[in-house]
Amino acid sequence: MFLAGILRLLVYAILAYVILSIIKGIAASGARKPTPPSRPSGPDTLVKDEICGTYLPRRDAVRDVVDGRERFFCSRECRKKAKAGADSSR
Q1: pLDDT by residue (tens digit) across 13-38?
Q2: Residue 32 φ then ψ, to 5°
Q3: pTM of the entire structure?
């Protein structure tokens, strides 16, 4: 009788362990870590506006081809100044 009680307790303990493992697995699959916000591809390099000397991230720069090469500007106004300077030197 004593041995039957211990075996019954052992079976209940194993059953409880299995049930808790299943519950824990289900909870872990539903609680995923949030993904970090995506960053733009490529390095986040700084470029210099040659007109006013401002440094800014390449992705935020106003781009244009002046005198046959790509140049970066902080604003449309600086781009206009560069175009005006390139046109007057011709």
Answers
A1: 999 999 999 998 888 776 666 666 66
A2: -85, 150
A3: 0.48
